[in-house]
Amino acid sequence: MTTIDVPGAAVTGVTGINKTGDLVGDYGQSTSGPISGFLYSSGTFTYFDYPGESVTVPEGINDSNLIVGYATQLPGKSDIVLGFIYDGATFTTLQDGTNTATYAWGINNVGTVVGGAGDIYATKGFEMVGGHYRTINFPGLYDYAYGNGINNHGEVVGSELEGIYEYGFVEKNGKFRPVQFPGDNFDTLALGINDKGMVVGAYNTGTAYTYAFATVSGKYVSFAYPGAKGTSASGVNASGQVVGTYTFDYQSYHGFVTSPITTADFEGAGCCQVAVVDGR
To answer: What is the pTM of this model?
Structure first.
């Protein structure tokens, strides 16, 4: 893994990566203070903030360098959350109907956006095409659900929160496939997907440690930054480069990008854990 830190920031998270290796993420001095967005391209950071908001969180970037995310105020200052598309110069605001909170999480190369909408207390997943929003009705009874990423085949990767339990899914045309790290029955987040169907995310088996994973065709590999207590993978590009965030103390955070994970990495003897899912 290569660490990506915004100079002078105590908190850096990398959330998305495109085909050419351009990265987006957020940074600040703490997880509870103001947060700004960045684009990292060819070794250079470009910083940006949604006008008038103290929290700007980019979540995804496509191959045309369109960035999606959400913006709001610090906790307790506002209940309004605005989704956005940012082209490097102009923000386009996204709002699903009359919902007071729209979180945009992923975008593919034809401009289809996925995320979650509702209010700050409950959301449902959505897919937005040409300004028209389709609700993604995740299975189960949940408080929050999000479409976290979408590839160019229209496959949506997402997660839902049922109380303290988190479950991951891949969805296409209303059909759902569970994403569940083997042995983890209650805490798998599915956060990114590429055109080869590789899904990345994070899982926790009930300990103080969180690990990143990648999965293809039911085979899972787990990885973590050496010595970190928490590692989460949030995006993957066409070549299999994975981005995410790690922490040693859950106070300061660092972004990362990996070398490509390929399908060959899932074929070696003894490489992987194989999932047995319950058909949720």
So the answer is: 0.92
